[in-house]
Design goal:
The protein is an alpha+beta fold and 364 residues long. The protein is built from 8 helices and 19 strands.
Length: 364
């Protein structure tokens, strides 16, 4: 028997707006409203809002909170000011990725972890299992929080003028806990689109109020379709495609987030060995000639031999080029290397390029 899809607190809003709904990470989620291209362009040029209430939130608190977060997280939160956010991964002992996540530092004794919807149960179990011997309290707050992401060059104006939430003084990758309408909410200057933007965490009731105000204010509702095209164009990974239990952060070309000079953390030895010895394969960008569209799982070949496979591919909405991220064996991962992508019975010429196909526009 198939497990029934969960619904976010905004589900009825999506249905009422005529969104195309589809199961994603165990939730019935909106894929598109007006259309992927229109929503994508709204975020690149103006502002759009996403329902991201399916994401998971875990609070880690207690005397050993800093020590514990350092133990399970590959990035280094040492000495960070309160209110700073870090991107990174939790890894298994063999270096494979449990999940990629954001760590919000409330203070040295409290951290807020934002994890991927598809991994909530697995992540929480793994965090609890590794908390033994640490004086910490682990709370899965995923059922409590709703979350919207307001993204695009006009996001700050929408937050201030439509929602009446002051965000000008929140720096990129920082957050504030604030009291709005008698409720404590979290507002961070983060997102998954390569544009300036904010993520707002609050109760389900609060989240519905925020959504309704944004709809009334004329902000474009956006589905998961353009969330994927936007993150892909700026080279951001998706767990399950560019990262997984079988793909380490080093293989995913994300070693800048793995801080090997900090004390021991889970997976450190395996990742240090990979960094020292080099990896046999890694995630690269590919640009295809012509209009053929590469899709997840398509083979990458050199002289008829498979040397890799596509992890995500699209005709880029912002650049008009056919591009992909792919896991490719060495030595075919060097910039400028010519390869071919097999799409059914035909192959199409491609070359290795940087995996950021479009420049990010974050607020400096």
């Amino acid at each position: 028997m198939e497990q029934e899809c969960q619904k976010t607190c905004l589900h009825d809003r999506h249905v009422a707006l005529g969104a195309l709904m589809s199961p994603f990470a165990g939730f019935d989620m909106p894929i598109q409203y007006a259309g992927i291209t229109e929503e994508h362009n709204a975020v690149r040029q103006h502002v759009g809002v996403f329902d991201v209430s399916h994401m998971g939130e875990v609070r880690v608190s207690g005397p050993d909170a800093y020590k514990f977060v350092s133990h399970i997280f590959v990035n280094d939160v040492t000495g960070a000011p309160d209110g700073q956010i870090f991107y990174g991964m939790m890894c298994y002992e063999n270096g494979g990725t449990v999940d990629d996540l954001l760590v919000y530092k409330v203070n040295d004794e409290e951290y807020f972890l934002v994890i991927n919807a598809s991994n909530i149960d697995k992540d929480v179990a793994w965090i609890l299992q590794n908390a033994e011997g640490f004086d910490v309290r682990i709370e899965d707050q995923s059922p409590y929080y709703g979350e919207v992401a307001v993204q695009g060059p006009e996001a700050e104006a929408a937050m201030e003028n439509i929602l009446g939430i002051t965000v000008k003084d929140i720096a990129f990758y920082n957050f504030k806990t604030m009291n709005v309408d008698g409720e404590e909410i979290i507002v961070s200057r983060t997102g998954y689109t390569g544009e300036d933007g904010f993520e707002v965490y609050g109760s389900h009731d609060f989240t519905r109020k925020v959504w309704d105000k944004l709809m009334k204010g004329g902000v474009q509702p956006c589905g998961l379709g353009c969330r994927d095209t936007l993150r892909f164009e700026v080279g951001l990974p998706l767990y399950g495609d560019e990262l997984s239990a079988d793909i380490t952060p080093i293989e995913a070309s994300l070693s800048m987030f793995v801080k090997l000079d900090k004390p021991e953390f889970i997976g450190k030895e395996a990742l240090a060995a990979q960094k020292a010895e080099g990896v046999k394969r890694r995630i690269v960008g590919l640009e295809l000639e012509g209009n053929a569209i590469p899709r997840h799982g398509y083979p990458v070949e050199v002289n008829g031999e498979q040397v890799g496979e596509i992890t995500t591919g699209y005709r880029s909405i912002s650049t008009g080029k056919s591009v992909a991220m792919a896991m490719v064996n060495k030595p075919y991962d060097k910039l400028g290397t010519e390869v071919e992508v097999r799409i059914r019975k035909k192959t199409f010429p491609a070359k290795v390029v940087k995996k950021r196909f479009y420049d990010k526009n974050y607020k400096k």
